[in-house]
Amino acid sequence: AVFSANAFAKESPPKIQVYSRNPGIYGQDNHLICHVSDFHPPDIEITLIKNNEEIPGAQQTDLAFEKGW
Prior knowledge:
two-stranded antiparallel ribbon; Ig-like_dom_sf
């Protein structure tokens, strides 16, 4: 018999937090930050959407600090 670790892994939906870097001021640029954590399997695609359209120019970084998260 062949067993795979994935066969026993439970899928977990991501926890998502969205917030601005600074308090919002009308007419001034700001950064929107989306923090995604606690999901399994670890391969995930994240897209920021506004009014059913992908937000152009959105930048992503990988902040995975823990090995094997």
